[in-house]
Amino acid sequence: MNAKRGIAILAAVFVLSPLALGIGIIMLIAMSDDDNNGAAAANFSSGALRVGKGYVPAQYAALIEKAAADCDQGLPAGVLAAQLQQESNFNPDAQSKDPVTHKPIADGIAQFIPSTWAVEGVDGNGDGKKDVWDPEDAIPAQGHMMCGLLKTAKQHPGYNGSPIELALAGYNAGWGAVDKYQGVPPASFAGGQTYDYVKIIMSNVDKLTAPDTSGTPETSGDWSLPVNAPLGTPYHAEGGEWASGYHTGQDFLAALGTPVHAVGPGKVVAAGWGGAYGNQIVIRHADGMYSQYAHLSKVEVSTGDTVSGGQVIGLSGETGNAFGPHLHFEIRTGPDYGSDVSPLPYLRKKGIHI
Questions:
Q1: Sign of the torsion formed by the C-alpha atoms of 57, 60, 61 and 62
Q2: How far does Cα 256 stand from its chain's mean position?
Q3: Of 205, 221, 232, 280, which sits 20 to 30 A from 5 (CA to CA)?
């Protein structure tokens, strides 16, 4: 890849500090298909990460969110996620090599070089060793390093770029380059490597971040539980019985024929057979989020219907890929499979006690 080759050649020509050869200096994949100026946006939603195929792998979402939460500088989880996507496409076995000598340069999901790992590496999982190949160590180290750079960036309000952009640039090229240009290095620096690195990551943050639903509940209707039944299999339970390798929703142990309610006001965008989900209903809500109700024995609404919160929309069942009657319930950032987010925090933010 040209970007990777360009940085590797630079590394051979110039004597760079360990920070300058930090996690982000080798760009493995240019993930963006967006031509807009991603570096123009600096404020991100504090919503949860988008988890699933095409978004953040479920096994890394909690690690990324914790790494962001551990930073006291306001580091968004979406920035760390977009950074990992750019570095390795979430591949813990990724390794970058010098295009000429073929010697290893950077290792693991966060693409640390050995000298930087020696300084920035952490024992994130407490197993007694700092393993660059272990995401449980590498992701906390990535977050810690970005947090420090973000703190430094905030001390330079006159520099060209937001603090997040400056931190990303320092992460990629070293803070010395940021100081030299008093901001994000221009496209003329290093063949545009750092400039593009910042732009691509910034443009992908929103794609990996769910909308912020922390505001007050909508006033156009009540919000309620989807069914009056105990909780069953939780969100993100792992297992081979699910195509994604994990459970994409929250189950409720509802007996056959139990009334199922719309959790909030919205418009029905799907009602009928949903393959492995059996009979399902998907509702779009005013905040742009979607709720899904699956394995129903009966569907009592049609696509295009407007429903109110608490309205009965169907009856629980065991249609589709189900082992016994229950309600499979999802909250999604889009109408389709693969855009799921954790359901219970969403319901709690709507004032539902669960």
A1: positive
A2: 35
A3: 205
Tens of pLDDT along 182-222? 999 999 999 999 999 999 999 998 888 876 544 444 334 58
H or E, element range at 138: helix 135-153
How many whole angstroms separate alpha carbon 64 and alpha carbon 79? 9
For tokens 């962001």, the residue is 68
323 Cβ contact list (under 8 Å, min separation 6): none
Three-class DSSP category at 17: coil
What proportions of the chain, in percent to the nearest 5, are helix, strand and coil?
35, 20, 50
CA dihedral of 55, 58, 60, 63, whole degrees rounded to 10? 110
- Give the bridge partners for 280, in sequence order: 272
Burial class of residue 284 in the structure, from the number of CB atoms within 10 Å of its CB (0-12 exposed, 13-18 middle, 19+ buried): middle
Q: Is the pTM value of this prediction over 0.85? A: no
Q: Which distant-in-sequence residues (6+ apart) come within 8 Å of 289 by Cβ? A: 210, 211, 213, 331, 332, 333, 341, 346
In angstroms, the CA 191 to CA 11 distance is: 13
- For 29, 159, 252, the CA distances from 354, given in Å and listed in that order, are 41, 46, 12
Q: Where is 9: in which H helix or E strand?
A: helix 2-13
296 in helix, strand or coil? strand
pLDDT per position as a tens digit, 245-299: 788 999 999 999 999 999 999 999 999 999 999 999 999 988 888 999 999 999 9
